[in-house]
Amino acid sequence: MRYYLVALFDDESYKNLNPIQRNLSKKYRANRNSPIPYIPIEALENPNLDKLDLVVEKILKPYKIFTVEVSNIACISEVNKTLNIKIEDIGYIKRLNRLMNDTLKLHGFNIRNYNNNDLNMHIALANLNYVAKDFKKSDDDNFSSTFNTLYVNRIELWKISNNKKETLIKSYKLKEKF
Q: Is residue 178 a part of any domain in this protein?
């Protein structure tokens, strides 16, 4: 079974993302029942959940709520079949991603590299059932947005299934900034 570590946003950030997600999903004919927008951090194959819980809690203990800067570029990942928004300033989230990757590998977890160094990190907005040929031709698509900063306030462990109640395995809250 494959599990995912994902970064999630606060309520205000979701209010800003919701109209963009709706418009881009309609434009690209994406699945309407997609999960809430998230930043994929790691994908793990058949982990020992008790050991994983201890390691992730230890990694996230010093981390506080942080921001990510969003660009106005939407893209499609053919490999993951997702509709994404690129992240502009990836310093803090990339450092967290690298730390998680290195530490989980050190503890013997089977990790599927989700964010390679040559690929930009992104926010997954929607799942695509198929990628149409006309969408493959245009790699990136610009859209207008009135915001550019989102606040990440928690990391969650997901198991993707058809039942939404079974998706969330564990949630890890980040410390308050103040």
A: no
